[in-house]
Amino acid sequence: MNVEEYIHSLFVKEDEVLKEVIESIRNNGMRNISVSPEIGKILTMLVKISGAKEILEIGALGGYSGICLARGFSDDGHLTSLELKEEFAQLAYNNLKKAGFEDRVTYYTGEALESLKQLEKEQKKFDFIFIDADKENYPNYLEYAIQLSNPGALIVGDNVLQRGRVYNTSIDDERTESIRSFNEQIANNPQLESIILPIRDGISVSRVIQ
To answer: By its UniProt entry, which PROSITE patterns does this protein fall under (predicted)?
Structure first.
């Protein structure tokens, strides 16, 4: 048993709702690139601990992370979720509806950067932003996330270790370089206090202190 298996054995319990989400993703011919159960549990806990009410998710896929985020907010919480493809957003909505959150989620479809520009025009502000979309745009997503954040908001990024590629100096492909840039930005931006947790493929947690 390795450390991941040990953590999984202790803290991950059978969850029929999330199990059905994974099945729906497979049944629709989509890649199962949802967050891991461990990351999902961290998301729920962080939302609860922070007391976040307005949550932004960049990358919906089939709704797995959306459900985990929504499970953390109180009765007046709301999730805004960005998804490239309309059919993915519809599947995510159907799964959140099954989980009881149909009236507490709004989807924007299309290129995430365009949706972020729209949110900025609408003067939206968020207490919690979760980034889990195309890795090449992580630095751009971070820039928007800071602009769209309330003071004290949390910005969380998934897959920030890229299975060790970010600290392997012999690897310099665009995806890896983008995540390196993202990690360096959250480490050095004076508006943020940040850390990376080496769970699964790495999750970053930043608090906006502007």
So the answer is: SAM_OMT_I
Closest CA to 131 of 152, 98, 153: 153
Q: At what angle do helices 37-50 and 3-11 cross, to 10 degrees?
A: 60
Axis-axis angle for helices 138-147, 174-188 (nearest 10)? 30
> Distance (Å, rounded) from C-alpha 57 to C-alpha 134?
13
Domain tally, the chain:
1
Do residues 117 and 46 make contact, with C-beta atoms less than 8 angstroms apart? no
Q: Is the pTM of this model over 0.90?
A: yes
Find the CATH number of the domain harbouring 13: 3.40.50.150
- pLDDT band of residue 210 (cuts 50, 70, 90) is low
Residues of the domain holding 156 = 3-208
Place of tokens 């999730």: 79
Identity of the amino acid at 190: P
Q: Which residue is listed with tokens 């969850």? A: 15
